[in-house]
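Section 3.1 - Work completed
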Amino acid sequence: MVVKSQIKLIKSLHLKKNRQLHEQFIIEGVKGVEQALSNGLFPHLLCATTPNLLAEAYTEFRVHMVSATELSQMSALKNPSGFLGVFQIPKPQPVDYSDWVLALDGVQDPGNLGTIIRLCDWFGVRHILCAMGTVDAYNPKVVQATMGSIGRVQLHYVDLAATLASAPVEVLGTFMDGQPISNAKFNTPGIVVMGNEGQGISEEIAALVSRKISIPAHHTATTESLNVANAAGIAMYEIRRSSL
């Protein structure tokens, strides 16, 4: 049974200030919750509308039965999936510069950040540096878009300029006028910076970039730019391909 105060707390986690206050966030859907548990994330509360929705491997965690109405009150989705978990926001480990690191200079769209986290998981990039203006990684829309990758990638919200200035590796940035990424060499690990959806990389961060790379458009293209999540995926693919 879930009491009204718990429902109120969970609903409050839709807001960033409350996620930060309680250091908790919501994951919805059986698969997302199972992956969070397998990634070692700590569950404060697990709720379901139907019995036996959790795999046998995780039966040590108590699942509270709730009504569809109660779940809809807690959910951030228009059509709740029938399962919801409240998890502790993990403490990030120190950044490991022995492998490639992605940096985000103010990415705003939750879907973009969620997709980028999932792409980092796919390409084995374990650390993302986020400028303070970047959307909160534990926003329900971001978490949903990660498709379970949220617990496998370390998110660091930092003073990005100061962090890049003191980083012990090369800093690269994606620009329209950079060296074509297919011709670039990525012999040693570094940091790749992706910019804001509308403004790109800010002047302050651009001044810290030692090498500019670009993803050239096809000669028939009429669009002005590439979606930041798509660009991040291409960049990580080329970096991994180049280092083979």
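Second construct:
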Amino acid sequence: RILALLGLGLAMAACGSAKTGRLQDEATARDLYLEGLDYLTHGDYESAVRPFTEVAQFPRFMSYAALGKLRLADTLFAQDRQLEAMEVYEEFTALYPNDANVPYARFMASRAVYARMPADVSFFSPGERLDISRVLQARDRLADFLRSSPESPYATDAAILLGEVRG
């Protein structure tokens, strides 16, 4: 009986410490997320990467991990690191397919592909003008977004960008 009571007491203590640890982790995640958000809103993108990366690596049960991953992608996009931003947006949609921010992440991934397009092909050599792969990628991404999310609040912006790509 004594061993059973001792075992039960240890199990209850472990559950309590796990719950306390989880609450501490969530508070830390929230603090890191808010720190990164402060850097992001003030345009200090280099400093924002660290807290968002840390938050994104917290366990999936924490709501701040998803937000951290999304804001990390936004930070990379703001730094004109479109290829990295696109990868993080896509990772977000794969990890959190039911999250309410998935349409935003998909739109921003399309926008990152669009941003990688050459701005003015008239200044490029004839060989470079023939490589329109980035233009085609942007067209396909934007068209796919519009097909899959026609009711999205980002559909109008995507349609405008698609019109520019086709032009």
